Every structure is written in C-alpha cells, then in structure tokens.
Amino acid sequence: MMDGDQINWGRAFGGGTLAWAVISFLWMLRINAGRVTKTEIDDIRTKVIKLESTVEQLPTKEMVHSIDKEIAVLVGRINTQTETMKPIAASVSRIDNFLLTHN
C-alpha cells in the first residue's frame, strides 16, 4: 500500500514527465517546422499550467477509498431504515384499509 508521500512523489514525477513531453514536443516542432512562434509556446504553456492545476486538485487514492467506505456505511444505514419502516408501512396500510372499509 502506498502512503501519501509516495503519491505526492508520483504526482511530482508525473508533472515532470508531462513537462519533458511538452519540451520534447516543442523541440521536435522547432527542428521539423523550422520555428515555433512565441504565441504557440505561450498557448501550450497555458494549457500545461491548467492541466497541472487540475491534476493537483484530483483526490488521492486514500481520499477515494475513504469516500467509498463512508458510502458503504450510508448504504447500510439506509438498508436498516428500510427494514425498520416495513412493519410501520404495513400497520399504516392496515389502518388505511380499516378506515376505508368502515367509514
């Protein structure tokens, strides 16, 4: 099982890999197409910054697991409530039928 530090290192490594991919892409464009314009570089830089910001906000594996456990607890409580309500619903139904037939 990975702890939080390993996940943060994984994100940092992933961000570094993304940066190297972008740099490599720009270098290949420059070699193959002659020259990359400043506007194109700025557009790609803006996209990378937005992507890194989005990745930083993603929940960690532990956060998702915690949410999953909480949902399981809530489902259990709802199932218990449903089972508790069945006799009450049956009683209300009998009272309703009695009132409808004896009125």
Number of strands: 0
Estimate the mean pLDDT confidence.
80
> Helix/strand-derived class?
mainly alpha
Strand proportion: under 5%
SSE order, one letter for each helix or strand: HHH
Secondary-structure topology with pairs:
Elements (H helix, E strand, L loop, with lengths): L3 H30 L4 H20 L3 H41 L2
Helix pairs in contact: 1-2
Could you please describe the fold and organization of this structure?
- This protein is mostly helical.
- 88% of the residues lie in helices and 0% in strands.
- The chain has two domains: 1-58, no CATH class; 59-103.
- It contains three helices and no strands.
- The model has no long low-confidence stretch (mean pLDDT 80).
What would the keywords be for this entry?
103 residues, rod-shaped, 88% helix, mainly alpha
Tell me briefly what this model is.
By secondary structure, the chain is mainly alpha-helical.
